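Renewal narrative, Specific Aim 1. Our central claim is that a sequence can be written position by position from structural information alone. The example that follows is taken directly from our test logs and has not been curated for this report. It begins with the structure tokens describing the chain, in the order in which they were read.
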């Protein structure tokens, strides 16, 4: 039996690492080897309370800090994240399993949100209307909410929290982050970088945990808003419970993203991008393509191209430069994905590439690219979010049938179309009931200066995340109507009991 002492991932509250008050922990696995690489503390309500207290006390000073100082701090933080991008990518890869280039990619997309937050003086500019009524002016501006909390999934340990905290903090809020207990260490490093940038203690806090910590956040009376990203059942639960306790909530859920391939598409281009969108990050992306919709007679040549490309993917540990696809996050995920492959065979779908046959040394959580053809909408393989490297092909007769298939589905995060026809693309983008659409772009994640979010069961709450909707989510609007009566003007003191109207 090994006696090696594993590292413990602590909370970071009020500028300090702390062991907190709960003695519960969870293992942090190395998905490439199957070994436990650390233990993470699991917070109890007292730890959440300590973090919220620190954030609550830091709020008045931070909210009053001038917008230019907040912007400069974001610049300093941005430069530190850029300087340590490779260090952060290695931490992400070690705990999540994704390959280093992919981890760098998520860091760059996170950095873009920090870039956006650096422009906060411009983003917080209000409106002003002169002389809306005689001697009356009207202006509006936005103010921070208070303590905001973020609850994050495992699959983007750096980027998804960065969708939240840079904008929350730049707009003058303080923040409590509860990262995924499966990939916790990146957030502690990010907290160190904020401190090095000069962020006052208590403005950004990290508390690790599971459902117990989440419930304590959802019920805490001093938290004003909750941003959640994760699976649909938990998003629905978080939205309902936090809304019931009076909070502003944005809760982004799971996905099943369809990509439609029309007969006029460049099939090699489409196959290449379906493979990248389906198997990048071992399919563990909310914007992964999990359903390829083959229209008309494209199915045979498309599936053949996809088969060849899927079988050529190099699978191995994320930290090894030659690897193109790493393991999935946990043994539980591995078993779930294998179960779906068996259920697809049982349901009568054609298994074209079997990921269970992967050949990687050791006890890591590896499952290879898996491709099914002739999948139908009743199959679990089609209905459920598998969240692994399983791509299914559904055959339909027309673009209209493809649109109906997408709109009959309750997942509505992203979708894509491959075509050479502008008219078909326009019909598609106008008709599908989905939040983010790619035209010949398989993973249409909007840039940070737009907002990100799905429809239907992929989003609970009115606000998409980051971009302009992020600024709106983390701020209250205020409208001020002013008059400065001149004592010398006759009649300026007169008022009426009727509802005020412009004169
Ligand atoms: P998850 O829902 O299991 O966990 C997300 C967070 O919720 C974690 O912090 C976790 O600790 C917490 N949590 C888990 N179970 C809970 C419970 N019973 N009660 C309260 N809190 C609980 O999600 P995951 O497996 O970490 O991440 C993958 C999921 O996230 C996928 O469904 C994926 O599609 C989704 N996702 C969505 C987006 C998006 O933008 N829509 C982005 C990334 C990931």
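The sequence written for that structure reads:
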């Amino acid at each position: 039996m090994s006696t090696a002492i594993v590292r413990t991932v602590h909370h970071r509250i009020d500028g300090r690492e702390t062991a907190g008050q709960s003695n519960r922990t969870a293992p942090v696995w190395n998905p490439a080897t199957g070994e436990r690489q650390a233990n993470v503390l699991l917070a109890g309500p007292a730890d959440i309370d300590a973090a919220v207290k620190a954030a609550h006390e830091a709020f008045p000073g931070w909210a009053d800090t001038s917008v230019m100082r907040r912007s400069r701090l974001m610049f300093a933080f941005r430069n530190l994240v850029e300087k340590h991008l490779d260090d952060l990518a290695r931490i992400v890869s070690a705990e999540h399993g994704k390959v280093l280039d992919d981890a760098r990619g998520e860091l760059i997309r996170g950095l873009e949100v920090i870039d956006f937050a650096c422009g906060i003086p411009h983003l917080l500019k209000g409106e002003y209307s002169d002389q809306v009524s005689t001697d009356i002016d009207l202006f509006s501006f936005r103010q921070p909410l208070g303590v905001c909390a973020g609850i994050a999934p495992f699959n983007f340990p750096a980027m998804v929290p960065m969708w939240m905290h840079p904008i929350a903090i730049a707009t003058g809020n303080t923040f409590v982050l509860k990262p995924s207990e499966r990939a916790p260490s990146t957030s502690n490093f990010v907290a160190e970088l904020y401190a090095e940038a000069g962020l006052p203690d208590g403005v950004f806090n990290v508390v690790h945990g599971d459902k117990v910590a989440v419930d304590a956040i959802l019920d805490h009376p001093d938290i004003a808003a909750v941003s959640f990203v994760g699976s649909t059942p938990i998003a629905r639960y978080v939205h309902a419970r936090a809304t019931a306790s009076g909070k502003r909530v944005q809760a982004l859920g799971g996905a099943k993203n369809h990509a439609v391939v029309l007969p006029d598409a460049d099939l090699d281009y489409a196959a290449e991008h379906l493979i990248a969108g389906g198997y990048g990050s071992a399919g563990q992306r909310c914007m992964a393509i999990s359903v390829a919709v083959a229209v008309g007679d494209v199915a045979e040549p498309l599936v053949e191209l996809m088969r060849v490309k899927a079988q050529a993917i190099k699978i191995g540990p994320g930290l090894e430069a030659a690897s193109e696809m790493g393991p999935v996050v946990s043994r539980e995920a591995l078993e779930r994905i294998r179960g779906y492959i068996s259920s697809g065979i049982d349901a009568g779908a054609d298994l074209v590439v079997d990921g269970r046959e992967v050949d990687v040394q050791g006890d890591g959580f590896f499952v290879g690219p898996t491709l099914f053809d002739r999948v139908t909408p009743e199959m679990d393989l089609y209905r459920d979010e598998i969240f692994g490297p399983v791509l299914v092909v559904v055959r339909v007769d027309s673009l209209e049938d493809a649109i109906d298939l997408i709109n009959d589905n309750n997942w509505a995060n992203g979708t894509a179309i491959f075509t050479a026809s502008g008219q078909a693309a326009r019909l598609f983008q106008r008709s599908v009931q989905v939040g983010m659409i790619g035209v010949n772009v398989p993973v249409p994640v909007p840039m940070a200066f737009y907002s990100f979010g799905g429809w239907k069961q992929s989003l609970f709450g009115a606000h998409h995340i980051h971009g302009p909707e992020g600024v709106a989510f983390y701020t209250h609007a205020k409208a001020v109507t002013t008059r400065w009566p001149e004592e010398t003007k006759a009649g300026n003191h007169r008022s009426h009991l009727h509802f005020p109207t412009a004169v």
